Amino acid sequence: MATKKKTAKLDVATDKPGVVDDTTIRIVNIVVSTSLEHDIPLEKMAAVLPNTEYNPEQFPGLVIRIKEPKTSALIFSSGKVVCTGARTLEKVDESIAKIIESLKKINIDIKIKPKIAVQNVVASGSIGMDLNLNKLAMKLDNTEYEPEQFPGLVFKLAEAKATFLLFSNGKIVCTGTKSKEQVFLAINKLIEVLKKVK
In angstroms, rounded to a whole number, what is the distance separating the alpha carbons of residues 19 and 41? Predict the structure, then answer.
């Protein structure tokens, strides 16, 4: 008799969690980098545009907060941008478009369509099983567990190139992946590993 395999399912494009065998996972953050291929006068940007922070003595980048979609971006004078907070690739595109639009207010016209490089996809949800974190900390390699300081166990799953936060109620956070496919693979590998722990 074939056993049904737990499969984590999610859709980055629609931001709707999928459920297969009690496994519910949702993308909560996509971190991307890009280049606008244009020098950016950060002091002028900070002086003219709202929702910006620029303290070059402390950090060389300008922070811009975008209300809709709710994201933040670091912009560097070289034109490099790191955007965080989006839950879908469509929201990433909207955020970058809003940055480009706001630059027009300081007479900078970006003519290119920036190439987006995903640096990290963060997903969270439940794997549908209770976890004995003390047992996992003893039986698995690459774990950190200090329950007096934090209630979750950190587990680095090298073969999936992912790091997990695991909680006793089966809730998880997955980070380090760069696509929804990698999230699927990492969570399925995690479930395989957890089922082998006796």
Answer: 47
116 vs 188: CA distance, rounded Å: 27
**Is the Cα dihedral 158, 159, 165, 169 positive or negative?**
negative
Structure tokens at 68: 């809709």
Which CATH number applies to 10-29+120-196?
3.30.310.10
The residues facing 105 across adjacent strands are: none
Asked if residues 27 and 14 have their Cβ atoms less than 8 Å apart, the reply is no
Nearest one of 61, 32, 35, 49 to 102, comparing CA atoms: 49
pLDDT digits 0-9 by tens, 124-179 = 999 988 999 999 999 999 999 999 999 999 999 999 899 999 999 999 999 999 99
> Which top CATH class is 37-113?
alpha beta
For the chain, what are the domain ranges?
10-29+120-196, 37-113
Closest CA to 64 of 51, 54, 48, 79: 51
Tell me whether the CATH fold assigned to 10-29+120-196 matches the one assigned to 37-113. yes
pLDDT in tens, 51-60: 999 999 999 9
Per the CB < 8 A criterion, the answer to whether 16 and 185 are in contact is: no
pTM, two decimal places: 0.85
Q: Which string of b and e fits 16-26 if b means at least 16 CB within 10 Å?
A: ebbeeeebbbb
